[in-house]
Specification:
Layout lengths: L2 H21 L5 H19 L5 H18 L5 H7 L2 H7 L5 H29 L1
């Protein structure tokens, strides 16, 4: 299967799991943030399927951290944007250090899982 298709399937699956995690009350909110970071990793992967995984992880972390730190900005237009469905899901509501930790673990986990699965698949195809 082509890499972009594989990454797109994983990306859409993560979105589904993320939405589901917000609907089930006993799942901690940090799981949604973790999945958000994993989703960003695979979104970046869709655009750069053949780049080094470490570079993808670094770029994904920068995107997640950038969005989180952007939550410190409280301009009127930004507050209005955050009231929309898009703004709430993509930009978030308020800065939390716990989100930074969840993003870090999410990106690290996606990186490790991808490295493990790629190594496994590459050994199988030889």
């Amino acid at each position: 299967m082509k890499p972009r298709i594989s990454y797109s399937i994983v990306f859409l699956s993560i979105i589904f799991l993320g939405i589901l995690s917000r609907k089930i009350s006993f799942i901690p909110l940090c799981i949604g943030d973790f999945l958000y970071a994993v989703m960003i990793y695979f979104l970046v992967r869709i655009f750069f399927p053949f780049k080094n995984a470490f570079l993808i992880a670094l770029l994904s972390l920068l995107i997640c951290y950038g969005i989180e730190f952007l939550q410190l900005y409280q301009g009127e237009w930004m507050i209005e944007l955050r009231k929309t469905l898009f703004g709430r899901y993509v930009l978030g509501q308020g800065f939390l250090w716990s989100d930074i930790v969840a993003y870090t673990f999410g990106i690290f986990s996606a990186f490790i899982v991808e490295r493990f699965t790629l190594n496994f698949l590459n050994r199988k195809s030889v």
